[in-house]
Structures are given as C-alpha cells and as structure tokens.
Amino acid sequence: MPLTPHRHASDGAAPHDRTVRAPARHRASRADTGHAHRRRTATALLAPAVSVCLLAASPPAVPLGIGDRLFPHLGNPGYDVLAYDLALTYPGRNDRPLRAVTTIDARITADLDRINLDFAHGTVASVEVDGAPAVFAAAGEDLVITPEDVPDRGERTRVTVRHTSDPVAGDREGGWVRTADGLAMANQADAAHLVFPCNDHPSDKAVFTFRITAPDGHTAVANGLPAGADRTRRATTWTYRTPHPMATELAQVSIGRSTVLHRTGPHGLPLRDVVPTRDRARLEPWLARTPGQITWMEGKAGRYPFATYGLLMADASTGFALETQTLSLFERDLFTDPALPAWYVESIMVHELAHQWFGNSVGPRTWSDLWLNEGHATWYEALYAQERGGRPLEARMKAAYEASDGWRASGGPPAAPKPPEPGRKIGIFRPNVYGGAALVLYALRQEIGRTAFDRLQRDWVARHRDGTATTSDFVRLASQVAGRDLTGFLYPWLYGTRTPPMPGHPKWRSTARTTTADPRPGTHDHRTAALPDTGAHRPRGSRE
C-alpha cells in the first residue's frame, strides 16, 4: 500500500500534504541528548514558503539500503536505532488497519540530508523529528524524511510517525498474521517494515516498548516483560518492554481472545504462554514441558539469555514456527494433531527455544550469516530428538550428507546462500541453512572433538550476547578454542559448492540430486508423520 497522506481525527494527527506548514521551531529539548539547540534561520511568517521551496529544489527521494548481499535495499545507513516505542490501537477486527504511532530514538552516525526508514504497507499521517513537523515521501519500500534541520553526526534524534498498520497483506509475505481471533506477527525475513516504520535489518538491534490498546474481550501480549495495563470502560492498553535489545524481525505482538498462562522455569525464570482460551486445557500438557526443555538447553549452551520465555500458540495456518524473541510463535495444530509423535513436537519446540541463544541473543550481522541461526537450532533439535526421542543423530547427519550436494546446488553453500527470487524474501530459508548448516557443525565436532565443540558453543553465546556476529567471528573463535587455525577446514564446508569429506566417515557420499522438502521446523503436512531424520519437514505449503 502506498504511503499516502491521511488524517486520523481520533489521534489528533494533522492533515499532511508532504509540505511542512508550521511556524519555524526549535528542536525539542530532551534530557538524554545533552546537545545545545541549533539556531533557526526561518521565521514563522516565511516557514511555509521556505518549506515549499526546499521541497521543490531538493532532489527526489530515493530508497537506500546498507548493501546486504541478499537484501541490498533494506536497512538504512547513517544512524543507529537505540529504542522503538510502538503504540497500536486494534479496532476489534483483524481485517481493518490499526492506528499506530511509532517513535524511534536513534544516534546519527553519518552526515545525512534525509532520514530513511523502511516502511511499505501503511498510510502515513504525519512525521515529526524532535517534535517538529517534517516533510516525508514514499520511495520504493522507504519512508524518506526531510527534517527542517537534520541532526549532526553523533547527536541523538527522535522520529515520530503517525500511521496505520494494515493486517491485510495482499500478495506481501510476512508482517501481520491474521488468526482466528485476532493477530500475531511473523516478520522474518525483513518484513517488520510491513507493520511499522523501522530500520529493518538484523544488524541494528534496539530495545522496544509496546503499547497495545484493544477492546474488552481481547488480550494483548508482546515481547519482553509486562509493564502495566491501563483499563478504561471499553478497552485496555497493555505495555511491554524488552530489557534486552532485539532485531526488528523478532518483534511479536499477539492480540486475540486469549488466555495467558504463567509458570516458573529454572532459576525462577518467569514463563508465560499465550493460547486460545477455548484450547487451554488440551494445550497445557505441552506447555508444561517448557521448563524441562530450558534446563536441557542450559546444559548445552549456558544460562537462558533473556528475562522471560513462552509459547504463542496461534489459531492460524502458517506452515511454520518462528523464534520471535521471548515469545515463540507456533501453530496450534502442531500440538493437536494426533499423527505427530510427541518426540517430534518437542524437538520443534526445542528448535525455537534454541534460537533464543542462537539467532536472538546472538544475531546475524548479515542475512548471509543465517546459517549460524538455523544450523545451531537444527543441531539442538536433532540432539534433543536423539536424547529424548531415540532418533540417532548419526543417521540424520548421514542422510543430510547424502543430500548436501543437492542442497548446495539449489540453494548455495550454507554461508553463501543464493539470493531469493524477486519479491520472495523468505526464499533464503532453504535446506542448505538448516540441515546443511547442522551438518557443518557435526563435521566441526568430528574434527575438534566433543569437549572443544561444547566449549565453543558456550563461549560463542557468552562472547556475543545481546549483539550480532558474523561467520568470520565463528571461524575465529572456533580456531581459538581448538588451539589451531580452522580456516582451511571450515571454509570448504561453509563456502564450497561440493560437500567436503566427513571426518570419521570416509565412506559417506553425497549426490547432486536436489530436494523440494522444506526443512524449517513446524513446516509439516499433518497427514503424515514428519521426516526429521532427513533434516527435512514436509511442508503444508512451501514458502519457496
């Protein structure tokens, strides 16, 4: 949907014709900036004319990007987002736009003429920069903002966008998921900008505050910890805050006729699950397994990295599960289908749980580093299936090895995946970054031994906690832990077009035969038992 001018009488937004029609102003003072006000040269009487002239004289707005190899036009240069404050008002139906106000606190890192945000599926009513109206325009999937006075490098700035957030996606992938009773989010990969204006790239983490207003009868839950609920006669506003920084792709908001269930995990960790109220009783046995799964993961990777965790069981047909930070998204039907064995369902739960360490706490610096997320989550999924479900890890790795050359041919090497087809961002989620990447970790364990491998896993999440990391960072740390340079060993596994020999298994062979199976956790056909031994779960509807 285009970013068209629009007025909301209820939120006080002024009509906007993309030309600032306001008196000259001073930057709003904020205690956290510590910067002096810059002098203004425009006067109140000349401000409208000056704004018109500047708009006419300036070059046209253009979309920018940070040059990610897979998604070069997403993300934006020149600033670092420190915090998002996202206020959403749900109208009571999931086929109508939500009213929204997104406030972004950022630090300017380069000399800018404009500020570009990623936003591509809503109507913008107004934009303010440090409290003053700013000119804005749509360009590609960017919202391009031209303040009267762009902040200087090193300064902090606050951008406030009043807009709608449209849950009817049309042919767009990702963003809002319409459930039977409300909404949830699935923003991977880089689809958060279909929901709210942002710097939509995993390299720019920030803390989030969510303020969600919904009519009586609905419950709203978001990432992080609850920070209050303000009730009026007909609605409630729930507030949640994330104590730890988060990538935009991992944002989660659930609005529906839901019940929130609370329990305690290891070390007193508060757990909260969100389920359709009518399904509470039959889903409870699955939810009760989470504390034990966290204990199991802590034994492998160290202390759980966040302040809370839980499952969001959505009454929706998505075809996948998703590791949204501290509140993993699942289809309800994954837990109610009698054809699926318990060990398999639990292994999918562990896959998303493992992501809280690998992919969330330690995020990818670029989308080419995706194998670090999915390879590790698939690895722990397979280990759990072996230890708790009796499914041999070696047999699964052998099957993955046999398919590996085909995966590399169709999707690229694990650390250099092929770009997706135009308009299909989720096309990067191929077998090469799931089973193929887990196979890399198996080869590494075979090469350096279990003791060094286990230490590497713990050191990795401890060293990069709450940050981002690259494939080169992983190779460097693996070499340090092993006490020798592993570049020559790991690079063929990570970047080669053919699968290297497997240490300890000289008779294993791979072929160039491709597979169409979808390896992502939770992508399954409920008419069959899934096929986790091959590293591939049969899709209900493949995203590729």
From TrEMBL:
Residues 1-38, 501-544 are annotated as: Disordered. Belongs to the peptidase M1 family. GO terms for biological process: proteolysis. Pfam families: Peptidase_M1, Peptidase_M1_N. This is Aminopeptidase N. Coiled coil: none annotated. It comes from Streptomyces capillispiralis. Residues 8-20 have a biased composition (Basic and acidic residues). Residues 142-248 form the Aminopeptidase N-like N-terminal domain. CDD domains: M1_APN_like (cd09603). Keywords: Hydrolase, Metal-binding, Metalloprotease, Protease, Zinc. Residues 302-493 form the Peptidase M1 membrane alanine aminopeptidase domain. It comes from the Bacteria. Its EC number is 3.4.11.2. It catalyses: Release of an N-terminal amino acid, Xaa-|-Yaa- from a peptide, amide or arylamide. Xaa is preferably Ala, but may be most amino acids including Pro (slow action). When a terminal hydrophobic residue is followed by a prolyl residue, the two may be released as an intact Xaa-Pro dipeptide. GO terms for molecular function: alanyl aminopeptidase activity; metallopeptidase activity; zinc ion binding. Its cofactor is Zn(2+). It is an enzyme of class 3 (hydrolase).
